[in-house]
Amino acid sequence: MIDLLLVGIGAGNPKHLTLEAIEALNSADVILIPRKGAGKDDLAELRRVICRDYLTNGGPPQHEFDLPVRDPATPDYVQRVNDWHDAIATAWQEAITSQVGSSGRVAFLVWGDPSLYDSTLRIAERVQSKLALQLTVIPGITSIQALTAGHAIPLNTLAAPVTITTGRKLRDFGWPPKTESLVVMLDAGGAFEVLDKEGYDIWWSAFAGMPQEIRIAGPLSEVQAHILETRAKARADHGWIMDVYLIRKRDT
């Protein structure tokens, strides 16, 4: 039996590691580190830093492997993502069996939390259909927590709910009905442009929790262009970007 540990490591700051995460990583026989290709080495490097500086004696052995990329030629978005996840699951399976065979304790370091707008659990379930493995999930600090902490704001207004969605949903369907506070994740860029700029405030963070974190906040009408320009420059500078934002409907 393979014990597969999915360990949330926070939104980019190694100090966000919980004691439970450190304990779980130290207990592994091997830590698998996926590489996402040119321009995204920061993602793998953070995992290397965590193993080197925060685990006992540099942690268990680490094995790095390359992840497949999403095929842009598939027109249907859901099918494109499902095909991609199938390919990633195959890469996981090959990496796992190459390191521990059919028995051992394998850890993956997962950005943020494995349960929140992350496909790690869906990929692990695919692997579980091929291998005899036990899943163990260690929660981590999410980018939403890093966002609100960085801006020093509460997530919700008094006694009010919060809706969490994706940039695609906001762009396609607009502001969700009966929503006061909206957190947007996985935005390919500027989904908030569909909104009436005069009616909202926004708190935006890129690379939340990381040393290069960027924060912009204010009335959407005043900061929208600045966010778009800053985002484009940051993406060009780093080759990738992770951003998240909270939009609140202003009282009228």
Commentary on this structure:
With 252 residues, the chain is of the alpha/beta class. Helices cover 36% and strands 24% of the residues. It is built from seven helices and ten strands. It has helices at 19-26, 41-54, 77-100, 120-128, 143-151, 167-173, 220-238; strands at 2-8, 30-35, 62-66, 104-110, 133-138, 162-166, 181-185, 200-206, 214-219, 243-249. A five-stranded parallel β-sheet has the order 3-2-4-1-5, with helices on both faces. It has a five-stranded mixed β-sheet with strand order 6-7-10-8-9, with helices on both faces. Helix 3 (77-100) packs across helix 4. It is globular, with a radius of gyration of 19 Å. The protein starts with a strand and ends with a strand. 30% of the residues are buried.
